[in-house]
Amino acid sequence: MNYRISTGMMYQQSISTMLAKQAKLAHTQQQLSSGLKLVTAKDDPVAAGTAVGLDRALAELERFAMNGNAVQNRLGLQENALTQVGDAMARIHELTIQANNAALGDDSRRAISTELKAIYAGLLDLANSTDGAGRYLFGGTADGSAPFAIAGGNVIYSGDQTQRQVEVAPDMFVSDTLPGSEVFIRLRTGDGRIDGSAAAGNTGTGLLMDFSVTDTGAWTGGTYQISFIGADTYEVRDAGNALIASGTYAKGESIAFAGVQVKLDGQPAAGDSFTLGPAGTRDIFATVRGLIDTLETNPTTDAQRAAMQNGLQSAMRDIATAQGSMIDARASGGAQLSAIDDAAALREANSVTLKGTLSTLRDLDWAEAIGRYEMENTALQAAQTVFMQMQSLSLFKLMR
């Protein structure tokens, strides 16, 4: 069987060879001009798919960084606001100690009251601090409007009690600013564990100076009342009116019962009483407002002066406990800021790893690509030379 190789077929094969080599050379030139090994997905479908996944991971890290910057700004502003609140609380404590001086006149107390009113207004402004983007720091997740307002002479809180959790690195969350209910509203009274007060109708000059839990095993968390049945005799009863202790009162000495030690001063009258029980909660604005009202009573009798001093003593305890709460709030924010720094370091480490892997998949090996370019260019030139020589292979040319 005879096979015939036509001149047209040889021409077609030569042209196809040159076109294929030109396509390879053009692809290599495109790689060299872009610096990328993967010019199109068909170059390496598996590597191209992996690279797309790595691009998404890098974009996610950038989003986490934006989240971190936003919450870091809010936490930094919270720290500034709480620092000013702490300074205000320290000043209130100083003024309360100053006002508790029995030799202080009514005019001096009114001056202190005036300064306390200014501090009160400043605290309200700090509680309504914003983050510079129109969102309120202490509103919880309901931060689109001012969380604190005055209604009926009292400060009300309209935010919620939710603290946002913000993802700042893969599976790593930090807490946003504290809700105002935790910072300004639900503050413990007394020493934070127990609280005490003098009855409003006391007629003597007895002062509730101090109290503390001395035996945690004996302290049951109940409410007790110290009642004076005479000028120097007392009895202690629990909430069920059961007699717990009784004794003779001596000025300046402590009364101990149920794991608690209470120190009284002054001279209580028969029928006077003092209550001691678990610490409750009160907002800082009510505490300051009560302190202002106490300073504006203008006492004229010994019993009224004792009531004012008892009120000032109670305010000092509440203010000191509130100061501790502010320190705890600042510490909480500081811990979140530290966590944000840790997250930034983690993001940076992950980013370096991902970019290194992505470079291995996508970036061009310049030495290999240049060598391949030279080889493909030589092959194309050889194909072109063969084609030129093939043009001269004709019987008509040999017959001339």
The top-level CATH class of the domain at 54-189 and 318-351 is: Mainly Alpha
Structure summary, number of beta strands:
14
How many H/I helices?
8
Classify the fold: give the CATH topology of the domain at 54-189 and 318-351: f41 fragment of flagellin, N-terminal domain
What sequence of helices (H) and strands (E) makes up the elements?
HHHEEEEHEEEEEEEEEEHHHH
Trace the largest sheet across and list its strands: 6-13-8-9-10
Average of pLDDT: 85
Could you state the CATH homologous superfamily of the domain at 54-189 and 318-351?
f41 fragment of flagellin, N-terminal domain
Supply the CATH architecture of the domain at 54-189 and 318-351: Up-down Bundle
Query: Terminal Cα separation, in Å?
Result: 32 Å
Instruction: Please give the share of residues in helix.
Output: 40-55%
Low-confidence spans: none
Specify Rg, calculated over alpha carbons. 41 Å
- Structural category is alpha+beta
Q: What fraction strand?
A: 15-25%
The profile of the biggest β sheet is: 5 strands, antiparallel
- Shape designation: rod-shaped
Domain Flagellin N-terminal: 5-141
Domain Flagellar hook-associated protein 1 D2-like: 200-278
Organism: Pseudoxanthomonas putridarboris
Subcellular location: Bacterial flagellum; Secreted
Q: How is the secondary structure organized here?
A:
Elements: H1 7-34, H2 45-99, H3 106-127, E1 148-151, E2 154-157, E3 165-169, E4 172-175, H4 180-185, E5 187-188, E6 194-198, E7 207-213, E8 224-228, E9 233-238, E10 243-248, E11 254-257, E12 260-265, E13 273-278, E14 281-282, H5 284-295, H6 302-362, H7 366-391, H8 395-399
Helix pairs in contact: 1-7, 2-3, 2-6, 3-5, 5-6
